[in-house]
């Protein structure tokens, strides 16, 4: 290369804004874009229906970008919108590099991406890594013969005898995790439905093809992935039987410790390599990680100096299913000390909505604000679930024949499935909550008349406006963005309080998790804040303006936030 060209290219490399992923989007303190972003999980079938066929679509999402921006969302995670027979509503992908016609086209995707970019928002996709659809061309080939090109891309084994699967492993969606295929006389493995055969991640060709999928979407502009079901990527190659536990589950199968088909150490190698690809694109990897303890969480961040997931979801936090300050305190402390950047989630498309899980039936709106006051102000990144900001509630089917989610069909009546938490977004009080002019694929609950975007936008005391004010604060208060988490009044079993401390200032968060009024007092001297005065930032009840921290009165389920400085 001539010297002058070499010099130009060195200079370009040194000073280009695109030099390395790290330089692109870190703030002066070294934070990455995803550490200050508010994420919003959106179920495309249920968000907005632009062509009025009862099913949401990408153009629907594009039409609501201004709403999301106005709410304070920085990154949208869209659950699978790829071609799929929809047995598991998109989590059974038959083509990883396209859009299901039901949701639109790649052109619509590009338009949505452009709209998001214009508004300085990012798009994250769902990467269903553990399995494909049984209609994917890889599986169709794999099942065609024992010597097929893609045979080893899935997990095939001989049975133990006539009609006997290779071992006792169970599908998490009920019954055996093996299905017999008469064409080749072998069984294939599926941790989820039989229509979701597990990919064989021990085959390097699978890894290469799947990593290339992420590259393909990065080139189209996506900023990262939520990695579906990563706990289940690998299985014990010796197929040891899982230990059987006492009792039966909701499907009538024996309880089992899934020791040999979940959380195998090999998953970490894959994630570390996938992270390298992500880093080349300034992208974030969010894990659907069902960690049971801090050691598991640490491993997902990357043990022994390795880099793995930037954001393994702390789903343990979501398993605190009651308003219990001691339990939340313990859970927050665990995640906060895990050495990575915490991620907080209170609802998703697999779990009944937080409005119902925490609500007491009388103060649900107030409790929805209380929960927002919690997970939006902790140190870490919150991932909202669509509709949480307006207090959407679960609308579970009441008759088996109405159930759409196969889990509900297999598990009825003990398990009614996940339809209830996937109902259409409630935009206004017109028919079908303004989601569609056609009958929606799932019915909206009657509460849409009061709990909808239009009505709540006009009501200063609505859940929606509460979310907006907390999210506004979150974007501008350095203490909420970057401050450390300091637990306060740790023996209080009714009120959860903490400080987010940053340099000479801090934000105090006080959450009354009880149904009775409470009085609390704070001495922040040990935290370096000698004065007793604080300035209210957000309050759902009485304390406003300048307050005295030696006696604060809180209404039932009251939320109070104040700024304190040195
Ligand atoms: C994850 C998804 C869930 C899906 C399953 C199988 O747990 O969140 O909705 O059914 O993986 O892909």
Quick summary of this structure?
The chain has helices spanning 3-15, 21-25, 58-63, 65-71, 106-118, 137-142, 204-219, 266-279, 294-302, 315-318, 325-336, 354-358, 364-375, 406-411, 453-458, 463-476, 478-482; strands at 39-42, 75-78, 122-128, 156-157, 178-181, 186-189, 224-228, 244-248, 254-256, 284-287, 311-312, 343-345, 381-385, 484-488, 495-502, 505-512, 518-520, 533-539, 546-548, 552-554, 559-565. By secondary structure, it is α/β, with parallel strands linked by helices.
Topology:
Elements: H1 3-15, H2 21-25, E1 39-42, H3 58-63, H4 65-71, E2 75-78, H5 106-118, E3 122-128, H6 137-142, E4 156-157, E5 178-181, E6 186-189, H7 204-219, E7 224-228, E8 244-248, E9 254-256, H8 266-279, E10 284-287, H9 294-302, E11 311-312, H10 315-318, H11 325-336, E12 343-345, H12 354-358, H13 364-375, E13 381-385, H14 406-411, H15 453-458, H16 463-476, H17 478-482, E14 484-488, E15 495-502, E16 505-512, E17 518-520, E18 533-539, E19 546-548, E20 552-554, E21 559-565
Parallel strand pairs: 1-2, 1-13, 2-3, 3-7, 7-10, 10-11, 12-13
Antiparallel strand pairs: 4-6, 5-6, 8-9, 14-15, 15-16, 16-21, 17-20, 18-19, 18-21
Helix pairs in contact: 7-8, 13-16
Give the overall shape. globular
The appropriate CATH architecture of the largest domain is Alpha-Beta Barrel
Count of strand segments? 21
Secondary structure: helix percent: 25-40%
How many domains, as an integer? 2
Bound molecules: alpha-D-glucopyranose
Q: Major sheet: order of its strands?
A: 11-10-7-3-2-1-13-12
Q: Bin the strand percentage.
A: 15-25%
The Cα radius of gyration reads 25 Å
The end-to-end distance, rounded to whole angstroms, is 59 Å
């Amino acid at each position: 290369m001539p010297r002058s060209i070499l010099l130009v290219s060195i200079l370009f490399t040194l000073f280009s804004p695109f030099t390395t992923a790290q330089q692109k989007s870190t703030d002066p303190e070294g934070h990455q874009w995803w550490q200050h972003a508010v994420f919003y999980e959106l179920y495309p079938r249920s968000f907005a229906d632009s062509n009025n066929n009862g099913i949401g679509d990408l153009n629907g999402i594009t039409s609501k970008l201004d709403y999301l921006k106005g709410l304070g969302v920085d990154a949208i995670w869209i659950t699978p919108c790829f071609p799929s027979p929809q047995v598991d509503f998109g989590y059974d992908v038959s083509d990883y590099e396209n859009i299901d016609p039901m949701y639109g086209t790649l052109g619509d995707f590009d338009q949505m991406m452009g709209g998001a970019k214009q508004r300085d928002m990012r798009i994250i996709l769902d990467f269903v890594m553990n399995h494909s659809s049984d209609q994917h061309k890889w599986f169709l080939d794999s099942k065609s013969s024992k010597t097929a090109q893609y045979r080893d891309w899935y997990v095939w084994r001989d049975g133990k005898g006539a009609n006997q699967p290779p071992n006792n492993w169970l599908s998490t969606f009920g019954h055996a995790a093996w299905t017999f295929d008469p064409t080749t006389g072998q069984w294939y493995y599926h941790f989820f439905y039989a229509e979701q055969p597990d990919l064989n991640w021990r085959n390097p060709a699978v890894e290469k093809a799947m990593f290339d999928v992420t590259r393909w979407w990065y080139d189209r502009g996506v900023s990262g992935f939520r990695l579906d079901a990563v706990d289940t990527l690998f299985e014990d190659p010796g197929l040891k039987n899982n230990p059987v536990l006492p009792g039966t589950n909701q499907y009538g199968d024996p309880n089992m410790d899934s020791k040999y088909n979940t959380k195998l150490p090999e998953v970490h190698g894959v994630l570390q390599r996938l992270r390298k690809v992500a880093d080349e694109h300034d992208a974030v990897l969010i894990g659907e990680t069902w960690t049971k303890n801090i050691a598991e969480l640490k491993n997902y961040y990357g043990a022994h100096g390795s880099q793995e997931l930037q954001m393994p979801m702390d789903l343990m936090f979501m398993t605190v299913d009651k308003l219990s300050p001691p339990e939340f305190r313990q859970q927050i402390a665990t995640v906060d000390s895990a050495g990575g950047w915490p991620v907080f989630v209170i609802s998703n498309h697999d779990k009944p909505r937080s409005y119902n899980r925490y609500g007491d039936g009388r103060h649900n709106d107030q409790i929805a604000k209380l929960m927002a006051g919690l997970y939006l102000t902790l140190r870490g990144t919150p991932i909202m679930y669509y509709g949480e900001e307006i207090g959407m509630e679960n609308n579970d089917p009441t008759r088996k024949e109405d159930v759409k989610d196969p889990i509900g069909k297999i598990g009825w009546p003990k398990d009614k499935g996940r339809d209830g938490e996937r109902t259409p977004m409630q935009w206004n009080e017109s028919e079908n909550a303004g989601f569609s002019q056609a009958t929606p694929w799932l019915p909206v609950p009657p509460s849409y008349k009061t709990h909808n975007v239009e009505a709540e936008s006009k009501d200063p005391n609505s859940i929606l406006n509460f979310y907006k004010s907390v999210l506004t604060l979150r974007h501008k208060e350095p203490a909420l963005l970057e401050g450390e988490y300091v637990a306060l009044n740790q023996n209080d079993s009714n009120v959860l309080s903490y400080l987010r401390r940053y340099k000479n200032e801090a934000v105090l968060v006080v959450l009354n998790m009880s149904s009775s009024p409470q009085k609390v007092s704070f001495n922040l001297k040990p935290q370096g804040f000698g004065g007793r005065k604080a300035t209210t930032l957000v309050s759902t009840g009485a304390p406003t303006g300048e307050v005295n921290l030696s006696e604060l009165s809180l209404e039932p389920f009251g939320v109070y936030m104040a700024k304190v400085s040195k």
